[in-house]
Each structure stands twice: as C-alpha cells, then as structure tokens.
Amino acid sequence: MGKAITSRHEDYSQWYNDLVLKSELADYSAVRGCMIIKPYGFALWENMRDALDKMFKDTGHVNAYFPLFVPKSLFEAEEKNAEGFAKECAVVTHYRLKSDPEKKGKLIVDEDAKLEEELVVRPTSEAIIWNSYKNWIQSYRNLPILINQWANVVRWEMRTRLFLRTAEFLWQEGHTAHATRDEAIAETKQMLDVYASFVENFMAVPVIKGIKTPNERFAGAEDTYCIEALMQDGKALQAGTSHFLGQNFAKAFDVKFSDKNNKLDYVWATSWGVSTRLIGALIMAHSDDDGLILPPKIAPLQVVIVPIYKSDEQKQQIAEKVTDIINNLKQLNVRVKYDDNDLTRPGWKFAEYEMKGVPVRIAIGPKDLENNVAEVARRDTKEKQSISLENISIAIFNLLADIQLNMFNKAKNFLDEHITEVNTWDEFIDVLENKTGFVSAHWDGTSETEEKIKELTKATIRCIPSNAKIEEGVCVLTGKPSAQRVLFAKAY
Amino acid sequence: MGKAITSRHEDYSQWYNDLVLKSELADYSAVRGCMIIKPYGFALWENMRDALDKMFKDTGHVNAYFPLFVPKSLFEAEEKNAEGFAKECAVVTHYRLKSDPEKKGKLIVDEDAKLEEELVVRPTSEAIIWNSYKNWIQSYRNLPILINQWANVVRWEMRTRLFLRTAEFLWQEGHTAHATRDEAIAETKQMLDVYASFVENFMAVPVIKGIKTPNERFAGAEDTYCIEALMQDGKALQAGTSHFLGQNFAKAFDVKFSDKNNKLDYVWATSWGVSTRLIGALIMAHSDDDGLILPPKIAPLQVVIVPIYKSDEQKQQIAEKVTDIINNLKQLNVRVKYDDNDLTRPGWKFAEYEMKGVPVRIAIGPKDLENNVAEVARRDTKEKQSISLENISIAIFNLLADIQLNMFNKAKNFLDEHITEVNTWDEFIDVLENKTGFVSAHWDGTSETEEKIKELTKATIRCIPSNAKIEEGVCVLTGKPSAQRVLFAKAY
Fold first, then answer.
1. Could you tell me whether strands B268-275 and B236-246 are parallel, antiparallel, or unpaired per DSSP bridges?
2. Chain B residues touching A151 at Cβ < 8 A
3. Which residue from A237, A334, B397, B419 puts its CA 20 to 30 A from A184's CA?
4. The whole model's pTM is what?
5. Contact yes or no for A67/B34 (Cβ under 8 A)
C-alpha cells in the first residue's frame, strides 16, 4: 500500500483527502472542482443508489429524465430560486467550435454559433420540470405526480472538496405535484423519513431530523426539512433535504388544475434530494487512521479471503477448502472476494483491505487448515477471532449484521454525547470550541441574531429539531424570550 | 385514449412521433433538441440499462464516473476526434449570472465571470478519460483497465428526432486500456458481441455485425465495428458501435506503460457505446398502427389484468380470484398490474395498453369466472384465447417466452428478406427505391465511389459484414474489381 495516510489527530482535513485518494474512491480531474468517481467509489454509490431507488419505488415514485440545460428565461421564472443559484451557474453560450485560423490543430469558439438564449447547466431542476408539468397537469386526475430523477448537476463552487463540495455532483432529485397543501407537506415529511431511514439503516450514520430556519432554507421553498449528521471532528453535515415548495413554482410556471368541483387552483409542490456528498459523510462518520470503515450493507466488498501459503501445494489445499465457503457465502448474498494474487504479500493485502474498509477479512494458512479454522478479523473493532470452518458462512453472515449494528451504535453514542444543552453565552462558546458537536440553545427567532452568532462563532443553526419540546427560555445571545431550543453547530 | 395515431402507411415519420408521444415514452422539452424521457420510457430504459450493465460486469468491467466538462485544450488533443465533434459542441464560457440592472427580476451573464479556458460539454469522453488514465497507468500491472460509464452526453444536432437524434442523450461508454494490440482488438470484438447479444436476445431485434468503412469510422478510431438493424420502413439503423482506437489516444495524452521487460510503449485503447437511440430502434422494428409492441424481457409491464364488471359484487368476486393469479405471476418474476380503475371503461383500457405495447392482456368477466377461464390477448399477433384459470400463471409465463421468440423471428424474417444481392447499377437503384432494405453489392473500396453512391442515392455503406465471403466481383458503380460484397442502405 505504500506509505500510510495522515492521522486524524495530525490534520483532519488532510486525513480526509488522503483517505479518499488512497482508498481509490475518487480522484481529482483536469476540470476545476470536478472529481472522478473511481470504480471502488462508484460501486459504493451504486449500492447506495440502488437501496434508495428501491425505497423511492416502494413509496410510489417513478423515475424520469429531464434535460441537462435550462433556458435562462425559464431559470429566472421563480425569482427566489434563480437568485439563490445565479452565482453558481455554468452557462452555455455557444454550440460550435471551429479551427483556429492562427494555430494549426487548435480550436476556438465559433462566434457565429452564439445561442440566442443562454442555457444554464442545471444546478437543480425545478424550473425545467415545472415548465413540463404545466403541460401534463390539467385536472386532479393528473395528480399526484411522483417523479424522481437520478442526474448530474453543476454548481460552481469556489472552494471544493472531494465528495463534500464539487462543481459537478451526482444526485437524485424528487419533484412531486399535489392537489392539496396537506398532501404536499405529508410527502415532504415522508421523504425526510425515507432519507433518515436510509442513512441510519444502510450507512449506519445516526441523524437528527428537523426543519431549517428561513435563513438556511432552499431558495424557493416555504419550508426545508433536513437530516443532520455529526462527523468525528465534531462538525455537522447536512445529509439530505426535503422541501415543501408551496405553490411557488406552480405560480411561476402557471400550473393550475381543476379540482373535483371544477375549481381552478395552483398545484402544490415538493422537491427532495441527496447526493454523492453522502459518501463524504459516510467516510467522516466512521473511518480511522488505517483507512475506510464501511458498513456491510453498502460495502462494495463485504468479505475478503486471503490465503497464507509458502508452496503451490499449500495454496492449492487452501483454494480447495475455500471454494465451498465462497459458494455458501454467495448463496447468502454476501459479496466476497478470494485474493490469491501472487504479486503481493499477505501483510500488504491486509493493509490494502483495511484501507478500503472491507468489513470482514478471513485469513487461512496451513496451520488453520490442520485445525479446521480460519482467522477472522472485523474492520470496525479490529478484533480477531478463530472460527471453525464448519458453518463459518453463517458465522460471517451474522458477523456482518453485528458490524452494521455496532457501527451505528458507536456513531449514535458519539452523537448523543455531543448534543449539549447550554443556557449562557459563555457555555455556548466553550462547548463549541472545546467539546464541539451540536449545541442545544435558546434563540430569539430572528435572522439578525442567527447571523450575529454565525459571525461571532462560525456556528449556524443546523435545524429546529422535530422532537424539540416546547420550553420557555431566553436567547443565548440576546436574552430575548424563546419558546424552544434549536441546534447550533459548525458545519461542512 | 383519445384519437388514434397516424398510420405507418400514411406517414411513417409522423407515425413514429405520434407513437412516442401517445405511448408516453417521451415528450418535447423547452430546450431545443432535448427530450424528456417520461416515466414509462425511463422504466423501459432502466430495464435495458440493467440487462446491459449485468453483461458488462459479467465480462469483467466496472463502472466509474468522469466529469461532464472537457477543457478545450484536452478536447483538441486528439485531433481527428476533436475535428469530428467540433461542430456539435455545446460550450460553457461563463460560471455566473447576475441581476440585469435594466430589467428587474431578470438575469444576465456576468461578464466578469468568464472562464479562462472554455469547457466543452462532453460529446464523448475519450479526452477527459485518457487524460486521467495517464496518471493511473505506469506499468503492465495497471493493465487492463476495463471501465464503463453511464452518462449524459451532448451533441448539438440541427435536425433532431425523439430518441433517434437528440442534442442530449443518455448512453454508456466503455473505455478500456490494454498492453497489446491483440488484446484491445479482442476486447473491441467482445463488446460488439455483447451488444449483438443484448439487442437480439432482449430487444428481439436481429442485427448484422460488421465493420465500418474509413468514411463512416468514429473520429479517432483505427476501426469501428458496428451492429446494424433494419426498421420496418426498410431503412437501416446503427444500433451500437465498438471502436478499436489503436494508440491514438495514448499518443495524444502521452500514456505509456512499462512492460514485463521494462520496455516503454504506448497503451492500446478501445471505446464502445450504445444509447437511448436503441429505444428508437426498438419502436421502429416492432410497433404497429395501434401502438408499441414491446418484447417481454424489457417491457416495463409484461401483463395487465382488466376486470369486466357491472356491479361492485362482480368486481369483488373477480378481485378475489385474481389475487392468487397475481401472486403466482409475481413469484415467477412477471411484472403484472391489476387495473381496476373505475374512471375508465375496459375498452379504453384495452386501447391504452395496446398503445403502450404491454405484451399480454388478461380480461376477466363474470361469465369467465363461471367457466373458470380468462380471455388472454397477446399484443404481438393480437390473437386471443381462452385459458383455464388453473395454472394460468404458468401458461402466461410460457406465453411471454413465446412472444419474445416470435417477435425476434418475425423481425429476423423481415431482415433476411431484405438483404438483396445485386450485380448491376440498375438493380441497385431498383432494390433501393422499391424493395428497400440492405443491398449487398460489390464496391471498389474507394471513398470516392462510396461518396458518389451516397450523392446519387442517399444510400451509405452500413458495414462490411463480418460473415462476408471472399468473392471476386466488380463494383456496382465503377466496374472496378472488388473482393467482397458490402451492405448499402438508406439509414437513420
């Protein structure tokens, strides 16, 4: 594996970058701010995507595909949304290149091929989609529309990080249309629950569900619901958002429907999305100085078997024994690989699969064969145990479930320990600076105070938690009255 | 369903457009030349994609994702490739919009945010990928690289058709790197075989495998292998291509590897792709004046069950009987829907599912219940039969296989009947104009003759078929000597 990565203690940010590159999840590209998702990273994304896609379909959604480009006149129709994204838009202005008359073999933009109207590369698809829904919706019979799209989007960011913040990223965006406000709000909440369930049950990352303050809302939404996760460095990360869009887009694109009584009204909307950013959250929630730690449910490879041998005969004996184990594991739908590559030594392989976060490693040598056992190492706790080859498949199958659970519990304990109630400004600063994590504090409900706190501490209101109890108190900064606590944190 | 579509006889082209819209596969969008793939069309694409993806993985390929944008300096590096695509490139020149100072609520391109180097929206990804492979390949140990990407690409076309030719389309592009010429050629041929197998076995569309003439080659390739299909109007359609790229891209991007003897050489490359254009081929190969005819293996819905009832009691009785049938079909992995919607009458439903090409329709009324049978209609031949409800699931399962086979056989007969050997120019013109289809003729091997024939007849050389026998003859236009026949046709 060559040299190790920077430790978290030494430089958390460098640890993250080293890890992404060294585990071969992603690589930098020649395009500013755009990354390459390498095969190992993409296999991880495919597992995440497939699990989510099934959850979307199980809740009645269907997939579709809308254009990459949004004509500027459509893009600007919903003014708040347009304003929110205008500064991050990649813009196509021409549709042809031509030979550079002055430099042989080079190309220049053909000024004769200037578009009459510029095209925005979608930063999000509400505009292009609602412009289509206009043609698809006439009556309540056409509702609801429950469409999801898996797509690439582009937001021109000045400071980028692999997975966490890239100019182009992959995501899914749900765009639904409803006859009533209540139905749209129910959909918004349902999809937040789907996200929370996915992130907790598949990624083993516990989340806090809540609602954003007006300052942090999606541009064009009436309400933004979110799930917030906590990274090992004590910073929060927004893991998914679900927006109740009210009638804003229906009004901007004039999408009306006639109800059962033939009365015309604007359609109600939601949108919701998660992206490859989730991979960044996954890495930072679980991994250690030896590399990734991946939850079994979405790990591209769940089990690796490494033979330890000195002769071809030994190798052959191990291979024979292992064949059955592999077949049994595959019958249990376990993703297993037998690495009998002669080019690298076992120690090197161990380090490599630790770096890649493979949940379980099985090593088998001649002595193990004699004793009819194998050495089984779990990646999460690094514990090793000797397991009898009789029924080893079932043991591994159960071990994978145990690892999944243990990873969630460990992260959940960390999260629970890092939600700290404070009642004074000094405590607020102290927890934020020293203990880190979420700070649960009273806030007076104004944008001014929210911004002032951000300016003073870099902490933002991550959410008003769904489970917050109504409780009288005074704002931690201004001393003005407050009815409930909100969660502050420094965030990615 | 409202009014029917234009008949093929009346206007083939209009029939196609009507059908795509009416069956709800796709819709026009607000972006010139870009289409919306609607949920029904996308479900079809998902089935095609999943089947292909499995075939790619079974042949050792992995998926990855590379940036949407290609910096102009990289794009122009492989000159022939750049020249081939320059006229179709959408170009991003700016990365920000700003408020229009003269029109409130409107946006304009921010001229202060002009990119130093323009970005081409990928028309194909060889350039951005080989620029990355440069960093990934040092020695033969890093080879082969067998990567596939599912992505959107943009080629600015002046005349567009839904699915067949759109400015943005979805596709997969394989990009492989090899240590030897032979290995790369074997890969190129293997992937052509994969495509042929997919199109014939899943889409039920027979194809001719062959190789393109230099005129028709992919820009930047040494050889382009292709599969060609025949549409019902006698025009050919290129259904997939697999390119042997030689060392062209390795040289353009300076990608060398050291072999086992530590000797440096340029890497050998292939690329291969199929796109949503295949859906156009699928439609035109099978469908009729009543709508789509979809092969069961990829049909989003394979069986629809329509109850015929006059009272709620009858509806209830049918529903009870049908529950078991549906469960049994689902256990056989049959995609089935029970349409007991009260808002539309059975006749309307029949027409709708015919339009959507659902392979099998089952109708059950009170009389059927009495006799313990159902009326089963197959979409391909329109034949109806009464089938006993005992074991109807197995009967339907077998019927789906029969439909798949029958659709292929019908299309195969049509293809075989439309490959016509001609030996004179008069025959050539006559077959092309009256019989249509592929014309198998001798050609003198020059680009001049090829172009002259295209100019005179609009027919192009679709391919030099892989199975062509060596046979002396004279060129159908020039009378010059020729060693084998090639296939001409008018094409999409």
1. antiparallel
2. 152
3. A237
4. 0.97
5. yes
